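ugh finaly. both done.
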Amino acid sequence: MSAASPSPSTPTSVLGADASVAHSRRIAHLDRWIVAATIVPFAAIAIARVAGSFPLWLYLATLLLGSPHVLATAGLYLDEELWPVARADPLRFLVLPATLVVLGAAAFAAAPTRVGLLLVTGFFLWQTQHYTKQNVGMFAFWARSRGEAAMTERERALIRATTAVGVLGILRAMDLAPTWDPLLRWGGLALIGVGLALAATTARGPRRVALATAVAFYAPLHLATVDLLPAAFTYQAAHGAQYYLMVGAAVRGSRRARRAVVPAVVLGSLVPLTILTPAMFAAQPWLFGLGKGVAAAHFFADAQWWRLRDRRLGPILRRRFALA
């Protein structure tokens, strides 16, 4: 926000020249932070390769960066201008997310252990699609934050297609069929190569680099052999870093939202160290399911909140991020 600290509902066009310029400068680095958050997997897996294994400190760093980000969603609900949007559509923003929480706990409580493992597998694969959808949104914000043209349908399709690369990488990490590993790896690398070639012909300059970064997001899963937990923690960390960046920028004008998000995330960092551990899953599977249900609710709610084309949310988000 500008030095004059306008309310979240105040359009930047009425702030005055100096305030508008100051606001734009504060948003100007958004494009760089988006790229920095997106390359977390490359950095984490490179460190592990140099170290010869995934060190404990990197486990903890990626786990604590990624897992608590789910609770940052609360900031969007507590924002004074965004909350009326949710209140006007309770089914989409309240009822359905709450239902997913209950269903998650119930599914894991009722399922035999083998079925529970299948549910976890399905969740990881579905999670990949969620990460990809956020990458689509991040590229859209990247383009708008630089004052460039909106994301094209071809760019959107290229990023969405990377879900297939991510799924192949997760299947490699799960090591369910070791004899298939070479096929999964080279299949993933081939898809990445095609995607990068198409990205090179789709965009130019910094936009080409940003698009290539999104297209290559899952490349570390195929450039190296990564176990499931390091893979899950690493990509959750990148996703979480992106999310903190966007939620922080979106609600920075709301004192109430900021005051709620910070303690929620700090307290939430304790959750993955207790409830979501494999030991707790074996003892109390419904607690594990509750955690996955909360994550699923977060996935669904996110799909509603970050819609630049939405009639009510679009103008608010564009104003918050100083987008053209």
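ok and the 2nd:
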Amino acid sequence: MKRPLRRSFAVLIFVVLVGAASFSTALRRAVAPAPAWEPPPPRLNATLLRLAAADPSEASLRRDVDELLEGRLPASAARARAWRHDRLLHPLHLHSHHGLSLPRRGRRPDDDHDTLLHRLPRHEQLHIDPALRRDLSSWHRLRRYDPSVLGSLASLLSIPGRIPSCAVVGNSGILLRASHGALIDSHAAVFRLNNARVSGYAAHVGSKTNFSFINSNILHLCARRPGCFCHPYGHGVPILLYICQAAHFLDVAACNATSSTRHGSPISVTDARLDVLCARIVKYYSLRRFVAETGRAPEEWDRAHDAAMFHYSSGMQAIMVAVGVCDRVSVFGFGKSSDAKHHYHSNQKAELDLHDYEAEYAFYHDLSEHPQVVPFLNDSGFAVPPVVFYR
């Protein structure tokens, strides 16, 4: 009689233990936070990807490069006027069909290279020196889709490895609403855009600058100054430049011939493969926005945006360079607000309409929150570092 009773008691203990374990597991599940839900990546639209990959400006760019290599300025009347103001051109790269020597002025060697100082004979011809010819040809040859370029950008900055932390400082007036200056300067490297002023604004934008990022239109304006001065942040701050027009390679060559010796920091042109990657990404987001907001076919985007002139902004490429070389990226001064100035340092009212800033903002959101869904960037196999946007 005792043996069955003992067996029943053992079974009862087993049931109690199993029940307690089950209750404990259920309790832990009820109390523990649920795992974060990751939304599935959206399906990329094949039509938008195809259209974003098309470059309607390639044919005209090819003609411009060929004309420069043959010793002629690009045929576009607008560009020619920009270079022929008062019939003055870069003396470093011009000679006369008649063999006339160009008049020189200035007693210092660098003065002989100052731009817009010499009048030219009626029949002038560009003389492309071998180094400039190599640079121009190499830049255009590299202008292809290769998203792996993100992993090789450290050589562009002439740095041995990745930078621990970077701040990219835009020019939006929203910077004046916060005092991020000390936070910006605490980063290992600070990128600034298009020579925006820092004097008088340090509390909001910081005072430190490690890299100056400009587009070639800015350099073209600098090239009109004696000595080609384009270094408002100090003589030792490297300038990174992306090319808007092939003819601006003349500015790069002329300015590097003077400013690298006088100011100690040469001008580096960004890898053309990065240009192509940026162009495809922003065009995809612009196409997507156009279709969503207008309900029209994506093929109609070209007419609405002047496709041959459409371009990403300087700020977008600066962010992409930072993503390629920094372990952590902080972004300041991007975005706009009805109660803020357009630019913190000027009275400019609006930007050029060849950019689609709303499309770029959509890209920034994905880059920060879900980089794996960014089209074309997800082909690179590159691990995007943390990117934080400050408003």
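summary for the 2nd one i guess: Residues 26-32, 77-123 have pLDDT under 50 and may be disordered.
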